[in-house]
């Protein structure tokens, strides 16, 4: 995160009103998750920096960066597709910080292939991490929120869940059918949870990024040629940065968005606008 973004978030600390709340951010050692964990940490949220087994060093680096900015963080080891590891991570988070108020279910991956060559292992890996992982984390969060009860001095919501979806929850994606199917699933997971838990004041939303520069999609933006192709899909004329998503996550986590429930916020520079019709079709 650049210094300007850090200063902007630090300055907005009082407005976000998130100080003292606790967030679990999954997939927080890279890309969008890392930036969102940093943004939340700078805004005064105590952050559980989730990482896969083996990713402890990277998680410690993110924690150190949050602490250097005056925040509080702990690493949270769990493969999000593993029920026991997810539940144990939430237990450790509550043990250390006393409560969890926010889940950013962000961890995800791609394993693309021509459909006729896609293995069952490729299919399962993407569904297990991108969809089952979001189910397991949301379930652990909901169980904790219900057991903890309201803390009106902290937030008007019992808890806040933000699912990381994608424009591919709606845009079909050849050669990435497992990924598109997982994000389509995330959309209805989010909406169904919002419907089931709204009356208990658990606020559930999703963010659908367009093309954001992270390690998940380097092929799509690293060369001039690839970037030019990609920009044809983005009416706003630039590739997204992780800070674009982190700022949206911060707002959705905060009570500034208290009446936003069951929504997917597209942060995509207009990718959903059918850019091929820019010239009139
Ligand atoms: P990334 O590869 O930089 O980060 C993904 C993170 O998920 C990594 O930290 C990785 O370690 C973690 N992860 C993967 N499997 C895991 C597991 N089993 N358990 C725990 N953590 C695991 O990619 P990113 O672009 O930052 O992706 C973050 C999310 O944003 C994903 O859900 C992705 O689908 C979504 N997204 C990204 C883009 C984009 O353009 N970058 C667009 C739309 C949606």
Oligomeric grouping of the chains? single chain
Strand content: 5-15%
The CATH H-level superfamily is: NAD(P)-binding Rossmann-like Domain
Shape annotation: globular
Radius of gyration: 18 Å
Following the backbone from N to C, one meets helices and strands in this order, namely HHEHEHEHEHEHEHHE
- Taking the alpha carbons of the first and last residues, their distance comes to 38 Å
Largest sheet: 7 strands, parallel
User: In DSSP terms, counting alpha (H) and pi (I) runs of 4 or more, how many helices?
Assistant: 9
Order of strands across the widest beta sheet? 3-2-1-4-5-6-7
CATH topology: Rossmann fold
Key words describing this protein structure:
281 residues; alpha/beta; Rossmann fold; 7-stranded parallel β-sheet; 9 helices; 7 strands; 14% strand; binds nicotinamide-adenine-dinucleotide
Report on the architecture of this protein:
With 281 residues, the protein is α/β, with parallel strands linked by helices. The chain has a single domain, classed as Rossmann fold (3-Layer(aba) Sandwich). The chain contains nine helices and seven strands, in the order ααβαβαβαβαβαβααβ. The chain has helices at residues 3-11, 13-16, 31-42, 56-68, 83-97, 120-148, 177-197, 224-231, 242-253, and strands at residues 22-25, 46-51, 72-77, 102-105, 159-164, 202-209, 264-267. Strand 2, helix 4 (56-68) and strand 3 form a beta-alpha-beta unit. The protein is globular, with a radius of gyration of 18 Å. The model has no long low-confidence stretch (mean pLDDT 96). The protein binds nicotinamide-adenine-dinucleotide. The site of nicotinamide-adenine-dinucleotide has 28 residues, from helix 3 and helix 6.
